Amino acid sequence: MQMVYNSENFAVVQFSVPAEVNRVADGDLTRGGYEIVDKFARKGLFIEGALAEQFKIGVQALIDGSPSQEELDDYIGRYTSLMQQPVILH
Fold first, then answer.
1. What pLDDT score does 32 carry?
2. Which residues make Cβ contacts (< 8 Å) with residue 24, sequence separation at least 6?
3. What is the pTM of this model?
């Protein structure tokens, strides 16, 4: 688990499965994914598989262009419509 982004609006955590556990053929999607939390809506989403790969590619394209925090938040905000799980503290 690794925090990859944290702003006033969103937090993004990457979950990875160790390579020795995650044996896949070349070109296959790896296991793991991203948890995205909308801090103001207090909702979260876990994405994996093809959607996680699409998210990763989009973020990488943004990072290559030295984005502002607003640009990153706008990109992450595209996923808020998928968020259904309320964030609950234990």
1. 87
2. 30, 31
3. 0.80
